[in-house]
Amino acid sequence: MNKKALAIGVAGSLLALALAGCGGDKKTDGKSAPAKDGKKIVLRVAYENSKTEPVGVAWEKAKEILNKKSNGTMEIVTYPDSQLGKKSALIDSMLMGENVCTLADGAFYADYGVPDFGIVFGPFLFDNWDQCWKLTKSQWYKDQEGKLEKKGLKLLASNWIYGERHTLTTKPVNKVEDLKGMKIRVPGNKIQTEGFNALGATATGMPLGDVYQALQSGTIEGAENPLGTLYGRKLQEVAKYLILDGHVKNFTTWVVSEKWFSGLTKEQQQWLLETAEEAGKINNEIQQKTEKDYLEKMKKEGVKVVDPTPEVLAGFKEKSKAFYAKGKDFGWSDGLYETVRKAMQ
User: Fold this and answer.
1) Which of 109, 220, 269, 343 has its CA 20 to 30 Å from the CA of residue 300?
2) What's phi and psi for 32, nearest 5 deg?
3) What burial class does residue 204 get, using C-beta atoms within 10 Å of its C-beta: 0-12 exposed, 13-18 middle, 19+ buried?
4) Which residues, at least 6 apart from 159, have a Cβ–Cβ distance to it below 8 Å?
């Protein structure tokens, strides 16, 4: 029994050292402490973006918010820059009940058994941000959240603006026809892949951290993301053409293990939900203030910017219709596009 106890102690110590080596806050051992035994509850928030991007800044603020709400009994530890691995691996760990949180969107949830959720990441679905927020408050959206919980994933918040997604390339794109055959990096999910394929490009899925080198080597010819992310990854150093197509108004969500979340007390759950929501408002304020700054910085660093005319955007929207015609391929419910458009009005 003494040998067994010693082995368990050593294993626990090694786990703590491994997590500390990932670059997180060394004050915690990163373990999923039981929610109801008086120990501090730790949530590891891991994401692809840099700590200086709006989402990173907002989660640093969330640490303070949760600490105050819980009187120091709950703690957030952040791991930016993919320190804990790629998004799909993080979500897989949630399904096993681990205390991990990450940023993800409907396109990923479609790949995890809730196909209708994928439509929120379709190209040119939303005309404005108000439509996004109306949709997230709708019964349709609540139904999708419920389906996701049955799959083992719990959304903490859906009110975070990630940004309007634009396209940065190594050669000029002035209209949608210029995308034909170009290899454009997208996150590794079917919805975003098919969304860009519909615009005529050759969508290429890869982790965000690999994009700089892929652009530099010519493996890909472009990438799409909000300005803050494009600039945060320094992609303007290796791709000098930007078209402000705004193909997706990207609101995003923060997701945790439903099993882990259910292990918290009702009060702890509420603190966490409120924290994620409040931090989302902070994130949105930062996003609005910094977007123009990012654009000006990119221009100063030699990026040639195309602000498309309504006629050019109409060409993009017309091309995007091919994406929505593939609903059966995505496993969507009948009439999903019409249902969602109605829910956001």
Assistant:
1) 220
2) -85, 85
3) buried
4) 133, 136, 251, 277, 280, 281, 284
The amino acid sitting at 244 is L
Structural domains present in the chain: 23-327+336-343 (3.40.190.170)
State the DSSP code for 74. Answer: E
pLDDT tens digits in sequence order for the chain, 345 residues long = 344 344 434 344 333 433 333 334 333 333 444 444 568 999 999 998 889 889 999 999 999 999 999 999 999 999 999 999 988 899 999 999 999 999 998 888 998 999 999 999 999 999 999 999 999 999 999 999 999 999 999 999 999 999 999 999 999 999 999 999 999 999 888 889 999 999 999 999 998 889 999 999 999 999 999 998 899 899 999 999 999 999 999 999 999 999 999 999 999 999 999 999 999 999 999 998 899 999 999 999 999 999 999 999 999 999 999 999 999 999 999 999 999 999 998
DSSP-assigned letters across all residues of 297-323: HHHHTT-EEE---HHHHHHHHHHHHHH
- State the CB neighbour count (10 A cutoff) for residue 296: 11
Distances (CA, A) of 30 to 42, 126, 191: 6, 39, 33
Q: Which two tokens stand for residue 253?
A: 């969500």
How much is the CA Rg of the chain, to the nearest whole Å?
21
Rounded Cα–Cα distance for residues 203 and 60 (Å)? 33
Could you give the CA distance from residue 147 to residue 151 in angstroms, rounded to a whole number?
Answer: 7
